[in-house]
Amino acid sequence: MTDKTELLRQLRIDRDKRSSGTGGGPRRWWLVGAAIALVVLLGLGGWLWTRSAAPAVRVAVARPLASGSSAGGASILDASGYVVARRQATVSAKITGKLEQLFIEEGQHVKENEVVAKLDATNASAALLQAKAGVTQAEATLAQAKAAAEDITPIYRRNEKLAATGVISHEALETSKGTFDARQTDLAVARGNLAVRQAALEVAQRDMDDTIVRAPFSGVVTTKNAQPGEIVSPLSQGGGFTRSGICTLVDMDSLEVEVDVSENFIGRVRANEPAVLKLNAYPDWQIPAYVIAVIPTADRSKATVKVRVGFKSRDARILPEMGARVSFLSRPDQARPDKAGANVPAGAGVAVPPDAVQPGGDASTGTVFVLHDDKVERRAVKLGARNEDGQIVLSGLAPGERVAVGAPAQLADGARVRIAQ
């Protein structure tokens, strides 16, 4: 029994001894794990706090400008204006008279020298007949004077010979000479009178022709200003009922667009450079155009310079006085100086949303914030015009780069941002 009891005592576990000798190990490891978890939680919390404190921005990608336009390269400037006719006339009569017949209506096409209207020709016709009668009378007087001169000439020549031989006296010769000179004078007067009568006939004929009003050039009648029975005159009769014009004629082949460009940007526009037109009536229709000329004077009241823009092709939908918007394009094969004087490739440029650009010191410079992961880079850019694609950036930004849209003004270079969902 003693041996068995001893063996059982040796096999029994002494719990007091175990707890006092080895109980500190698990507790220590638990404390280490808790400390590590606390550090991880603090780091995660700090990261989340930093992320939530970073300003939220929207992101846009810089898009390359379309280079397939038939008119040229990128849009560098936009301007508004109106379609005008370079060749337009208010057709009127050269004389004052009553309008008897009118052969035109609005929208009618007429050819050059085509009869537009006729005036009452009663007085002009009578004056023409009178002038013709005067010419007939002058011709008869001239014939009579010529016959008289022809009759006296041989008599005078014979008397000269007789006087030389002493057959007739000197006094008889002087008398014959006086008659001869008188007949020559009558002949000269008759010739002059005929010339006057012929000139009067020409004037009367022109007055008669002026009762017929003709189109000065080929075009389209846009307005009709007079009706048969009204008095028309080339001179304005203020306060009366006299019409100073019969109709307005427009040469549709002379249509162009006149725009006013701010003098701050006129350096971007040059003659013969390409452009694209959009009429307000047809906003989706892009019309190839070109710069005809930059008028070499400025309007001091508006600080603008007038620019003439021509159509490369004609279309019946283009009408005078239509509103138009012109986009001046750069040449794809040329570089042009920007406002600061640096050469910018004509085909270069990207489009970004307008609120992605913070304006600079002038209208041709600005600032964008380019995203690199969660940080932004402040970058200065050269600006072009604004159009339906957005704000044109001529240099400083490459296609495909991401920019912050609606960035706060206090955003700085290298700042962290978060992308708004």
TrEMBL record:
<dbReference type="GO" id="GO:1990281">
    <property type="term" value="C:efflux pump complex"/>
</dbReference>
<dbReference type="Pfam" id="PF25975">
    <property type="entry name" value="CzcB_C"/>
</dbReference>
<protein>
    <submittedName>
        <fullName>RND family efflux transporter, MFP subunit</fullName>
    </submittedName>
</protein>
<dbReference type="Pfam" id="PF25954">
    <property type="entry name" value="Beta-barrel_RND_2"/>
</dbReference>
<comment type="similarity">
    <text>Belongs to the membrane fusion protein (MFP) (TC 8.A.1) family.</text>
</comment>
<dbReference type="Pfam" id="PF25973">
    <property type="entry name" value="BSH_CzcB"/>
</dbReference>
<feature type="domain" description="CzcB-like C-terminal circularly permuted SH3-like">
    <location>
        <begin position="350"/>
        <end position="405"/>
    </location>
</feature>
<keyword id="KW-1133">Transmembrane helix</keyword>
<keyword id="KW-0812">Transmembrane</keyword>
<dbReference type="GO" id="GO:0015562">
    <property type="term" value="F:efflux transmembrane transporter activity"/>
</dbReference>
<dbReference type="InterPro" id="IPR058647">
    <property type="entry name" value="BSH_CzcB-like"/>
</dbReference>
<dbReference type="InterPro" id="IPR058649">
    <property type="entry name" value="CzcB_C"/>
</dbReference>
<keyword id="KW-0472">Membrane</keyword>
<feature type="domain" description="CzcB-like barrel-sandwich hybrid">
    <location>
        <begin position="88"/>
        <end position="233"/>
    </location>
</feature>
<feature type="transmembrane region" description="Helical">
    <location>
        <begin position="29"/>
        <end position="49"/>
    </location>
</feature>
<dbReference type="InterPro" id="IPR058792">
    <property type="entry name" value="Beta-barrel_RND_2"/>
</dbReference>
<dbReference type="InterPro" id="IPR006143">
    <property type="entry name" value="RND_pump_MFP"/>
</dbReference>
<feature type="domain" description="CusB-like beta-barrel">
    <location>
        <begin position="257"/>
        <end position="329"/>
    </location>
</feature>
